[in-house]
Description:
Radius of gyration: 27 Å
Number of strands: 9
Amino acid sequence: xxxxxxxxxxxxxxxxxxxxxxxxxxxxxxxxxxxxxxxxxxxxxxxxxxxxxxxxxxxxxxxxxxxxxxxxxxxxxxxxxxxxxxxxxxxxxxxxxxxxxxxxxxxxxxxxxxxxxxxxxxxxxxxxxxxxxxxxxxxxxxxxxxxxxxxxxxxxxxxxxxxxxxxxxxxxxxxxxxxxxxx
Length: 183
């Protein structure tokens, strides 16, 4: 009976060890998490820390982890320049341990304001200025139309900043994984 009990305990220990080994992150796997803080292209700085919570692997072997990283590139929006934001992750903490990772963002929920208001204001302002200039300088008509088109096109090319609000879903693919020693 004792031999059976000992064999059962050893088998349970080995099964638990194998289960823990399966819970280790693997390079090439995609993970999803929730961004803890808002990041936007208007105020973000390179090196700004970012955290993902509730990190889960696509195959379900890891859940409830936390990823730590930073903003690696940010381009605020401007005239003819769309907003761009890049983040990377370097640490993953799971129930099976802490890992040094190289994780790149492959998808995130972003918000960008509509440019419609600027386009309308640009067209109206262009129409007024174009009409005033053509009538005053050349004593001709049609300046309003030309000004409206020009104002609209200038406003259309003025890009909006991008925001990734706290609570947004972010997808990360691991390029490399290395288990950290415990102290």
